[in-house]
UniProtKB/TrEMBL annotation, chains A, B:
It is an enzyme of class 5 (isomerase). Its EC number is 5.4.99.30. It comes from Oryza punctata. This is UDP-arabinopyranose mutase. Probable UDP-L-arabinose mutase involved in the biosynthesis of cell wall non-cellulosic polysaccharides. GO terms for cellular component: cytosol; Golgi apparatus; plant-type cell wall. Glycans are attached at residue 158.
């Protein structure tokens, strides 16, 4: 079928896919021992490590990995006053890595995520699955009941319009988690022992017009198509909120993908999420978000981007203005966030002058 | 969790769920030997058999099943001139069974569908899974990445608004098929040997605003909530089209569910679809539909139902008028179909005087 991606079926492909076109972005405050487990899959790729917290601390990276590492001093030096848009003491700092990457694709993963096994007991090469997801089209305009129609052994079912079978370009691939599910603090507290043991063998497109909670733990995207929308907001140190960085990026990104007719997938691959974060600490970080999201989500559900916005940057700046105007009424934090969204785009364009000049997204 | 349905885990529950509140509707032209395989699961329930084709033929039903059977003569006698809305020589005739049922729930299944096995080798009680789907809420307003949040071992993920966690009432449960997938004639022709072998262990809500191709092979619904929208249209004998009966019902039903804030689920349960229908015969039935669906789907994507329509019947009559006005321009068939949609509602209300008088759907 048109659009099917043929990928070697061994978990460690002899020639790693997109070896020179993908960066792995990892935010961390500790030594990266977790990379040992990922070595067979990650070693061929370049890593961008964003060190959060005390820049004087030395982060150890296992031997043999090709990486660049940025701490807070580096971020301040590179961005100058615009560094204010990059969060501190929060994994939201990872988006600095998206900005300095020079590659077409980014995969980002948390340092408490390990290699999961599929039901046959085989190690899951999460990165390879993300690449498959990104290189095959999405189906945002109509729902296919047999899930990803581009996968081997599947197709579009009866009643699926033929004009839509080419699908849309895929901008984002959102992977899931076995073991510790990505729950909020209240759910963690109510169900402290719940583990996700269900391996759902599916990849699906999040339909156009539908928002979803995007988790940053196990996520890949096409920088050229959607990079400037992947801003993880102002969280952590000095901010009234945390743990909404990936959610914020997901809502902004999805509205822009819908506007530019780009696709977003969720499902496979799974990673093994090793340990639950402290629900009491999480509740403190989240509690304003828990209130605010009741307004934020209707805001994004109703947000429309003007037709003339034909690049991700233009779309994002339009959203920033809407955030200022509509969410600014809820709390002054959103005015600060809207300013930071504008700064983020300025910084992005400064570090990515070639993509700033050309058309992004739809027009590409 | 609120909304979780506790159901015995054995495949044959000692007390069958909803035994006196559910009818099984089967359209057929042949002896119902396929029921032997379903006996452990179906025998406690009442069957409504709609005999298509020659009414002089005798359909044999295996011993021990409780059933009523209607042939074309019965349909003509019961509905009089309104029988014109019920298709002949097409499985669309099944919707007559929905109309004469006196139960709250309907499960409909084709006579070439057998019991499938789950990955552990256990027989799947499809009916039990449909009932679980119908008795637990749906989540049409926001997407949950871990699929059905009401299922044991799952929940709403971080970033899911708390105000939406009660979900919506579930009106429809759409099950899938192992072995022969539900492909259209062109896809059958291109991939004659494709079989669906992937068991995806998930139930999900089709988001609000998203249309999907509803297949009538393995389908359950809440008659009280959505029954009058489950009209399978004019197909088969004397009509220019076939094999779009369930699609038509699915599109109408989904637009109405979205309007009334009702939920539609798809995924589990699987049945084993035993044999592919003849793709050449199918192509003849389908080819007009293949063209027309290119206009029909945008029509339904853009259809809006006036606020004052607060029953399924009112919604359906509004849709019928829109079909007449907008799709009537494509082909006179749609004028005839719009007339039949009105006749269907008249016939429904005649046979269901109590539900005709009370409010359906949202207002209930």
């Amino acid at each position: 079928m048109a659009g099917t991606v043929t990928v070697p079926s061994a978990s460690v492909p002899s020639t790693p896919l997109l070896k020179d076109e993908l960066d792995i972005v990892i935010p961390t405050i500790r030594n990266l021992d977790f990379l040992e487990m990922w070595r067979p899959f990650f070693q061929p790729y370049h890593l961008i490590i964003v060190q959060d917290g005390d820049p004087a601390k030395t982060i150890k990276v296992p031997e043999g990995f090709d990486y660049e590492l940025y701490n807070r001093n580096d971020i301040n030096r590179i961005l100058g006053p615009k560094a204010s848009c990059i969060s501190f003491k929060d994994s939201a700092c990872r988006c600095f890595g998206y900005m300095v990457s020079k590659k077409k694709y980014v995969f980002t993963i948390d340092d408490d995520c390990f290699v999961a096994k599929d039901p046959s007991g085989k190690d899951i090469n999460a990165l390879e699955q993300h690449i498959k997801n990104l290189l095959s089209p999405s189906t945002p305009f109509f729902f296919n009941t047999l899930y990803d129609p581009y996968r081997e052994g599947a197709d579009f079912v009866r009643g699926y319009p033929f004009s839509l079978r080419e699908g849309a370009k895929t901008a984002v691939s959102h992977g899931l988690w076995l073991n510790i599910p990505d729950y909020d603090a209240p759910t963690q507290m109510v169900k402290p022992r719940e583990r996700n043991t269900r391996y759902v063998d599916a990849v699906m497109t999040v339909p156009k017009g539908t928002l979803f909670p995007m988790c940053g733990m196990n996520l890949a995207f096409d920088r050229d198509l959607i990079g400037p929308a992947m801003y993880f907001g102002l969280m952590g140190d000095g901010q009234p909120i945390g743990r909404y960085d990936d959610m914020w990026a997901g809502w902004c990104m999805k509205v822009i993908c819908d506007h530019l007719s780009l696709g977003v997938k969720t499902g496979l691959p799974y990673i093994w999420h090793s340990k639950a974060s402290n629900p009491f600490v999480n509740l403190k970080k989240e509690y304003k978000g828990i209130f605010w999201q009741e307004d934020i989500i209707p805001f994004f559900q109703n947000a429309t981007i003007p037709k003339e916005c034909d690049t991700v940057q233009k779309c994002y700046l339009s959203l920033a203005e809407q955030v200022r105007e509509k969410l600014g009424k809820i709390d002054p934090y959103f005015i600060k966030l809207a300013d930071a969204m504008v700064t983020w785009i300025e910084a992005w364009d400064e570090l990515n002058p070639s993509t700033a000049a050309v058309e992004n997204g739809k027009a590409k």
